[in-house]
Amino acid sequence: MKSIKPILRTPLFRVTSLNSVSVLTKIATGLVTSKILAVFVGPGGMALVGNLRNFLTSVETISTLGFQNGIVKYIVEHKSDEKELQKIMATVFISLIAVTLLLSGVLFLFSDVWNKLIFGSENTYSAVIKILALVLPWYATTVFLLAVINGLGQFRSVIYINIFGNILGLVFSIIMIWQLHTFGALLAIIIPPSLLFFAVFYYINKEIRFFQIFSLSLFDLPIIKKLSAYSLMTLVSSLCGPLVFLAIRNNVINTLGLEQAGFWEAMNRLSVYYLMFVSSILTLYFFPKLAFATTKKATRNVFKSYYSSVFPVFVLGLTVLYFLRFYIIRMLFTQDFLPVAGLFFWQLIGDVFKAASLILGYQFFAKRLTMAFIVTEISSLLLMYGFSYLFIGIYGIEGIVMAHALTYLIYLLVLGVYFRKTLF
Hints:
This protein is mostly helical. 86% of the residues lie in helices and 0% in strands. The chain has helices spanning 4-9, 11-40, 42-63, 68-78, 82-109, 111-119, 126-151, 155-190, 192-195, 197-207, 221-255, 258-292, 296-323, 325-332, 344-366, 370-395, 398-418, 420-423. Helix 4 (68-78) packs parallel to helix 7 (126-151) and helix 6 (111-119) packs across helix 7.
């Protein structure tokens, strides 16, 4: 017991424990949502939902200029300097609002064009694109405020907001999918995140006088230049990545059919759920630590903490998941989705490599290694697309998850070599 008590008192344990509640809430709500999607829209509808998710990720990244990680870093560095903190917030907020309003106009005016690109000419969901255009400014503001709260070290507030958002999203999804089926499922993706603004505003108003950051006099162009490195890295990752996956899914639809694309989307949904355990801890706890670390020894200690605590638990969880895969598919989806079981092995292998490489990838952001990040990110996306295109022709739908595993193995090895002096 004496050896356990010091562990229980560590900040990492406290954040991880509370974050586990948030992740479990997200998973639980995701399970219910997935079940409803499987029953009401089937594999074909799930594939369309996946296409919108990929497109939405790119749109959200453009609307926030990819500033999230940069905001966290600079808030961490200047949170004791109130004047500089206000300048950072004002500059970023004014920039985001300007870009978001412009993007919203483009989405609204050309909604028919976007509909054809995302859903195909046989589906008419232009109304979804128009609604997205209307709610996008609220979403961009929410992302900005969450990054500020995270940078201020208010981990618990971020986690509580995420829990509330998960529950809100579940309730909205149940009503929309039940009443409107595929159209409702698409609305359930874009509306709840914007509604989360009100919860975020409640928390931020406790820490900062929010309306002071509207002042144009606080706008400082050099801050944008400093953040541009983070913006470029995030834009490459969050813009190019979803577009590549959208292209891969459209290739599956054209060669194997909409149903097969739905099976892959089901596997992706599961992957997103369990990877949240790792990604949320990295964002909330390890990234601020990496950003603050000024020596190789300090950085190495952050890496060591991750690989000795979070990563082993993740691998153990995936092992259990593999042996329960048939039960999980029946519970989350329907009998129609049983072919997804054949995708588990290579998807889980790939996700182990992905989890191992994630913290190394965060080092690019923490130390502003812009060019190295862009080269490795674009290379990995090209590998994923190339391997997928090749393996689909040989192995069918299983070829995509085989490509996923091979891509992240190569990515991990490359990052290991690049950061070898810090790791060892």
